[in-house]
Amino acid sequence: MELGSEQEENAERLQFGALFSDAERCQPLLICEVAEVLRQKRAELPAELQSSLSPVFTKAETYTERFNQFRSAEVAKVVRARLERHPELHPFERTQLANLLPETAAEAKSIIPSLKGKIDDDVLAQLLHDLAALVE
Amino acid sequence: MAFYLVELTKSVTVHPRYFHAKLGDHVIGRLLALTEGTTSGRYGYLIAVVQVERPLPPGRILPGTGHAVFPLRYKALVYRPFLGEVLDGVIASLTRHGVFVAVGPLSVFVSARNVPSDMEFDETEQCFTSVVQGSEDRLEVGTLVRLRIVGMRRDATEIAAVGTLRADYLGVLG
C-alpha cells in the first residue's frame, strides 16, 4: 500500500518521504541520545511492568548498548553541539557521522555519498577527528 | 542505524465505563498499548511513546455505542530504515546462501553473492572465511558488520530488507 503512492526514498540522495523530511515533525537522534531515552523510559516503569516491554523495545535497547560509543549523556550533548556547528550538513548526515564514526574524509564520503561536493575534506577530517576524541 | 523522534497522531476509542476521574490516565494507557512495539511500513518500528500533547483534546461521543474518540497527538521514538542507508549490525544466523544481520528489531538478509569478495563459505566450519592469506576475518554468529541496505519491502505491518557487505568500508567491523 505504501510503495508507489509515496515519493521515492533513497538515503544516498537524502530522499526520506514526506513525514521524515519534515524538520518540524521529525528529528533524527544519535545512538547515544536514544540510549538515554530508553534508560529513562525503563527507569520510569514500576518493577512489575519491566518484563512487559515489547520485543521492539528490548531489541533497540540491546542495539544501543552495543553500538553506543559515547558513554554518558554529557558527552552526547558535546557531540550534538559539535555537529550543530555544521548547518550545511543535512540532519541525517550529521547523525550518520556520529553513529558510524568513519576514520577519514574518504571513508565518510563513501558510506554517506551525499556528502560529496558539500563539505571540504579538510573540514570534514577535523570534524571526524573531534568526534573520535570524544569516544570512550 | 537511524532513530527518529516523530510527531504522530492516533485516535483512541474509550468505553463509557472509563468516563470517571481517571479517564486521562486510561486514554494514555490505551495509546501506549495500541502503539508501542508495533511495526508499520510508514513510520517503522515504534519503540516508545515519549510524550503526549497536553491538555488532552476533548473526546467525541460516537453515536449508537456511547464510546468516545480522542484524537491524540504524541511524540514517539521510532527506528526507520531507508534504502541506501549504511548501518551496523550483528550476525544472528547464517547458511551457505547468506547471513541474517540483526539491526535492532530489523533483520537484514545478505546473500552469499553480497558478502565481501574475498570470502567463501567454509563447509567444515559452517561460516564464511576469508581466502586472503593471513586474514582472520570471518562471518559467524555474533560478528559485528557494517552493511548498506540495497532493497526493502514495506507493507502495513512489516519491513523486510536485503543488504550488501561488498563495497569499500563495508564488511566485518574491526
UniProtKB/TrEMBL annotation, chain A:
<feature type="domain" description="RNA polymerase Rpb4/RPC9 core">
    <location>
        <begin position="21"/>
        <end position="136"/>
    </location>
</feature>
<protein>
    <submittedName>
        <fullName>RNA polymerase B</fullName>
    </submittedName>
</protein>
<dbReference type="Pfam" id="PF03874">
    <property type="entry name" value="RNA_pol_Rpb4"/>
</dbReference>
<dbReference type="InterPro" id="IPR038324">
    <property type="entry name" value="Rpb4/RPC9_sf"/>
</dbReference>
<dbReference type="GO" id="GO:0006352">
    <property type="term" value="P:DNA-templated transcription initiation"/>
</dbReference>
<dbReference type="InterPro" id="IPR005574">
    <property type="entry name" value="Rpb4/RPC9"/>
</dbReference>
<dbReference type="GO" id="GO:0000166">
    <property type="term" value="F:nucleotide binding"/>
</dbReference>
<dbReference type="InterPro" id="IPR010997">
    <property type="entry name" value="HRDC-like_sf"/>
</dbReference>
<comment type="similarity">
    <text>Belongs to the eukaryotic RPB4 RNA polymerase subunit family.</text>
</comment>
<dbReference type="GO" id="GO:0005634">
    <property type="term" value="C:nucleus"/>
</dbReference>
<dbReference type="GO" id="GO:0030880">
    <property type="term" value="C:RNA polymerase complex"/>
</dbReference>
<dbReference type="InterPro" id="IPR006590">
    <property type="entry name" value="RNA_pol_Rpb4/RPC9_core"/>
</dbReference>
<dbReference type="InterPro" id="IPR045222">
    <property type="entry name" value="Rpb4-like"/>
</dbReference>
<keyword id="KW-0539">Nucleus</keyword>
TrEMBL record, chain B:
<dbReference type="GO" id="GO:0045948">
    <property type="term" value="P:positive regulation of translational initiation"/>
</dbReference>
<dbReference type="InterPro" id="IPR045113">
    <property type="entry name" value="Rpb7-like"/>
</dbReference>
<dbReference type="GO" id="GO:0006367">
    <property type="term" value="P:transcription initiation at RNA polymerase II promoter"/>
</dbReference>
<dbReference type="Pfam" id="PF00575">
    <property type="entry name" value="S1"/>
</dbReference>
<keyword id="KW-0804">Transcription</keyword>
<protein>
    <submittedName>
        <fullName>RNA polymerase II</fullName>
    </submittedName>
</protein>
<feature type="domain" description="S1 motif">
    <location>
        <begin position="84"/>
        <end position="166"/>
    </location>
</feature>
<dbReference type="InterPro" id="IPR012340">
    <property type="entry name" value="NA-bd_OB-fold"/>
</dbReference>
<dbReference type="GO" id="GO:0003727">
    <property type="term" value="F:single-stranded RNA binding"/>
</dbReference>
<dbReference type="GO" id="GO:0000932">
    <property type="term" value="C:P-body"/>
</dbReference>
<dbReference type="GO" id="GO:0060213">
    <property type="term" value="P:positive regulation of nuclear-transcribed mRNA poly(A) tail shortening"/>
</dbReference>
<dbReference type="InterPro" id="IPR036898">
    <property type="entry name" value="RNA_pol_Rpb7-like_N_sf"/>
</dbReference>
<dbReference type="GO" id="GO:0003697">
    <property type="term" value="F:single-stranded DNA binding"/>
</dbReference>
<comment type="similarity">
    <text>Belongs to the eukaryotic RPB7/RPC8 RNA polymerase subunit family.</text>
</comment>
<dbReference type="InterPro" id="IPR003029">
    <property type="entry name" value="S1_domain"/>
</dbReference>
<keyword id="KW-0240">DNA-directed RNA polymerase</keyword>
<dbReference type="GO" id="GO:0031369">
    <property type="term" value="F:translation initiation factor binding"/>
</dbReference>
<keyword id="KW-0539">Nucleus</keyword>
<dbReference type="GO" id="GO:0005665">
    <property type="term" value="C:RNA polymerase II, core complex"/>
</dbReference>
